[in-house]
Amino acid sequence: MKKLSHHQIATFLTDYALSELVKYVMEDTGCGIEQAMERVYNSPLLPALQDEEGELYVQSPAYLYELMNNM
């Protein structure tokens, strides 16, 4: 079995978190996927989430959603 690199793991977890954040926005606001994606991807949370050194991507999507809403 091939061992995943730190970057691969970070990318996987970041992508998963972003997917969940979009779902949360859609559920909470009733908006469509495009509007939810726009809100998540334009959030100040995105650069912090994508920073592999900060390792914010290891946090739960629910926690990240709270952070995003409080920024």
The total of helices stands at 4
Largest sheet: none
Radius of gyration: 13 Å
Shape: elongated
N/C terminus separation: 41 Å
Indicate the multimeric state: single chain
Number of E-type strands: 0
Molecular structure report:
This protein has a domain of 40 residues. Helix content is 68%, strand content 0%. The chain is built from 4 helices and no strands. Helix 1 packs across helix 2. The longest helix is centred in the N-terminal third of the chain and has 24 residues.
What's the layout of helices and strands?
Blueprint: H1 6-29, H2 33-41, H3 45-50, H4 61-69
Please describe the structure with a list of short key phrases separated by commas or semicolons:
71 residues, single chain, mainly alpha, elongated
Short description:
The protein is mainly alpha-helical and 71 residues long. It is 68% helix and 0% strand.
